[in-house]
């Protein structure tokens, strides 16, 4: 009987794992099956054509713009905020309130951020429907993610490292810079990767702040269309599932490439693998 | 409470030693009280630690010996709620009046209970302290690292793998690299907080041999739970109980004919 229970539990565990992988494979497989026929160099690197048959290069560029701009702003601010909260701030009511606020911010639906961005960046600050409005909105969306993950990463650095470094007569800043941040780097990086996923996957907030202009952006103040928005619009307008799936493939490959790049950079930063 | 009486006894014996002992006083502690918030952890601790001697601090868990050790390099400053009264002089300087805690910690090194090497190479660990002091010259660093590792009797074991992760070493080797890291700062005093409590008997023996060797050059204060260890490695022993120093004497005297009955009870294993 005990043996049976054991096997049953093992079976359930195995089933859970299997189901997860299966769902992933089915979705990815379906998207590849539907979309792979459209993938060619012309599709990826070609300019968009309103009459059909064109490429998605402008949308890829727009997506990369939004990722780079939002992360360039959000990462340093997020890390600084987390370091302050975790290493410097006196743990009291104010810090608890800030933590509560960041946690709540991660749970707010992105369309709310989109509405805020549309009112504040687009209208009040007169940036118009543009890549910069969308990137700033995305910055606000991913900031809490980066702060939370960085805080968690800093928490996992053993107190003995801090003590060891301070006992050797180094300053708090040296300890932070030379010991604590490098040890927390893998965790911080996974927060950044998570944020990249959030940015790439975002559509509602971008729709409201960057608009839908399907052309190569002239700069960060142009209105433009990201891959996800494009995918939504082509399905909505023409019901072209193959095209949407092809865009899906490009998105999946981009996310994989960015993850690999991030892991590679973290290894480079650590120099050796400890 | 018969605290005052006990304390007088300690001070009197300290005076007697002043006449007998030629070694100069390295660390002088007077009337030290320490509070964690409202809880007092140390009561009127006074003792003189002499240069190039090993002083062992013994006592049951929670008696304040580790807390006391950490006052000597001001590691207790890291805890917000800690308050301190009294004076500690090291080399004649009042360490709690000076603002420069960095300078203090370069002179007073510390080895912790568990080896706490950083996730870096062995070389980078030992070079860490000197680098933080601004030493960049490669030759100079190489020399410091080699001297320190030799000083900690681990050079031969690690010389071929200096650039590999320090965390790949065994626990005992790691602790000796920790000692090397401390002596790389060329300190006057080395504090050791139960340095062998996480080690196997053979590694413990090696660290003890190392301590006996190191006292030629350094003043060592060691907290230990292990009475035999205190007897083996130290010249003087202080017995702490409930935040007070009950007895501070030559080690052989503490273990052979303690003056206080509580010391006797503890060293003979009746409590603790």
TrEMBL record, chain A:
Its main location: membrane. NCBIfam families: 3a0107s02c (TIGR00974). PANTHER family: PHOSPHATE TRANSPORT SYSTEM PERMEASE PROTEIN PSTA-RELATED. The chain crosses the membrane at residues 12-33, 56-85, 97-121, 127-147, 243-265. Belongs to the binding-protein-dependent transport system permease family. CysTW subfamily. It holds the Pfam family BPD_transp_1. The keyword Phosphoprotein does not apply. This is Phosphate transport system permease protein PstA. It is found in: Cell membrane. PROSITE patterns: ABC_TM1 (PS50928). The gene is pstA. SUPFAM superfamilies: MetI-like. Keywords: Cell membrane, Membrane, Transmembrane, Transmembrane helix, Transport. Residues 60-262 form the ABC transmembrane type-1 domain. It is a multi-pass membrane protein.
TrEMBL record, chain B:
Pfam families: ABC_tran. Residues 27-267 form the ABC transporter domain. Gene3D superfamilies: P-loop containing nucleotide triphosphate hydrolases (3.40.50.300). GO terms for molecular function: ATP binding. The keyword Magnesium does not apply. Coiled coil: none annotated. It comes from the Bacteria. PROSITE patterns: ABC_TRANSPORTER_1 (PS00211), ABC_TRANSPORTER_2 (PS50893). Keywords: ATP-binding, Nucleotide-binding, Transport. The keyword Transport applies. PANTHER family: ABC TRANSPORTER I FAMILY MEMBER 17 (PTHR43423). This is Phosphate ABC transporter ATP-binding protein. The lineage of its organism: Bacteria, Bacillati, Bacillota, Bacilli, Bacillales.
